[in-house]
């Protein structure tokens, strides 16, 4: 036992001599912690690309570093990733996962480490934890689902929606906000059912929904299930209008379908970069395509806007996480998708748009924009 | 290296394991960053969950795919009680262990009777149900979003900070759990489970209650899983349905296999390696999964017995084989006095349309040797299986020591004083001779040490005491028969059923066996001897029964069987001329 203790003390002494001295480094680090594998890999890759593209705009006189870490889909992996990047250099802010459960897990640690998390997660509860270190550059469900419901009721004039949603955090949160928005509009869905993201056949739920005699199908599904349901609806000859969730606007979702299968389908989203409604957005889309060989979506644009706002704060002199947090909390930023301003809880985005497909191309047209003041459901 | 591998099986890698534990401690105390400590903490949580899995799967051989789900249940208990009701660690931790246990017991009663893959599928189904409940009971569980705001560990008013204190707490519990698991594995329970895993049929005939053992292992696995789940939720401060998903289970299974099946040290080694491996390759973005997979595959190929097996071999090469301490030998207590032996009346058994045993009656009196002969397929082994509880009779009556035991389970018959051998000596692969014989006393003795002492006596009685430290693998047929006989003898049975014990023996070995059987009968044992070798059987047996197509065609003195025309016809296919 004495020999073991001697060995232990010796090793400890040696280790203290070997420990690297604290490095003096002015480089500001902006790690990107996103799900690159698992069921959110498509969206996570968009998020990654948006952040990486934004971080190429290095402000003059400031050295910037970035590391991309895959968080998978487990909260545990996200927290480990945050702990990992926090220990490497001076972190200015973190581009953080769009997966709600990962964000909820990272929030306490971010508060403890005093690191701003910049995300495009739509999960409502991440900005309801009283945590001042989270900033969401994507409209939350309260915004997008209000726009979703209002378009269905006010623009399409439908009052008997059938709602099909996902049994994930994304799906349950969206469904709850859709319920509230429809209720505020005096509409009660004739059908509501959750489906597992792993379901390989959505015809049964579609058949049940149609049996309830709806006048519109309202979807709130992830990318793959959205494409599957639309294909099965098209092959079944469904002629009802379909208004889908934000996953539909993603070019990667549209790529899974023939243009004809998309005819008459609309979707809510924060933005649709490939619709190219302004020259700045078109320039972003071209740069994104040149860098990554694919089309951007709203998640890429939202994360791009978020990290660009962070860099604007750095340009303006913010050199610490706290200074960046203060800038994000108080400044207004005109991004490519919309104008961002914190509501005091970290919700930066307050606009949503509706896009529709004409059946001839996979690029949707922007048909309606809903901005902040008008979003509270009537 | 090959030579080392050949003798490595009974060694113990204590030196490398102690060195490894020391290195881990030094790393945690002096080198690890907060991130390193976090990975280490998570590794500790997985090690704790895997301890339980090592008991139910590694030792017991039951592939429970509910271990991850039990871990999730523990996590939810801590999450709900901690975040909603503000209960402290002192309350939530034991409750997080208790709830999975209470869930495992009724579930186990229902599914543990299923065999191999059916059991695995049933436990997977349990995990799926729990996941669905977590998603669809949002008022209780927070639904898909889960519950945020789970407090840190608060121990008697002290908030345990993350980093070194939390890692220390987790690894302290890992050390405690590992010690408990290690003691269980080396004790009566662990050895009984190993016996059950290696040969469930033989385990029952040795008196081991298969159902109770499996349920105990399942319950213990749930306790460990619940503890791990509680610690997991404190380290990530949120509980969501991901903790109930299959990847958690896959991680636990992989840790057990990579670390070394059934070994607590393997759980720790596997967890530390598997949790660190992906972190070492994170810089590859999503490419790390390919490298991780290749590294894992290489580990499994290079160390098929797990990392602990590899360490065993290295330790033997470096330090030589550890000498077994000679065991104390002790004579087992004599059996209860059952003057009536075993009485069988009208035994009948059919398999589908085949009547394997039809109206067989026999009387095995203490101090006698009864022979049971018949052509191949006449029903001799079925009779032994019926008498020893491996098959249930369709009709008939069996009494042991005057007590009704018709249709009783094998383990109950074994505990009531019945022992049997098998046609092919059923010795567990990889086990030592002493352990194999001691397994027959596990249901009777208070601890493994006493069982080994009794096993030593039985080996000595059969003249093979020097084999105690040998492995059962590679023993010649005659010695395997002796070891199996020692397993039967060590229980001091009242009735001994032997299925072709002389098969494959030389004349000298047969003579030794005959002398031993005479001695045993002389001590009051009732012996039923199934044998084809008439030269061996007839001088031994006082009475012989001959079966043909399940029916008794001869029942009388041994001397008369050779001249019985019906017996001759059964064997030769015609009536012998007088």
Automatic annotation (TrEMBL), chain A:
Pfam families assigned: Peripla_BP_6
Signal peptide start and end residues: 1-24
Residue ranges annotated for the Leucine-binding protein domain, each copy included: 30-352
GO BP term (any one): amino acid transport
Domain of life: Bacteria
SUPFAM superfamilies the UniProt entry points to: Periplasmic binding protein-like I
UniProt keyword terms in alphabetical order: Amino-acid transport, Signal, Transport
InterPro entries documented for this protein: BCAA_transport, Leu-bd, Peripla_BP_I
PANTHER family in alphabetical order: LEUCINE-SPECIFIC-BINDING PROTEIN, PERIPLASMIC BINDING PROTEIN OF ABC TRANSPORTER FOR NATURAL AMINO ACIDS
Protein family (similarity comment): Belongs to the leucine-binding protein family.
Name of the protein in question: Amino acid ABC transporter substrate-binding protein
Species lineage: Bacteria, Pseudomonadati, Pseudomonadota, Alphaproteobacteria, Rhodospirillales
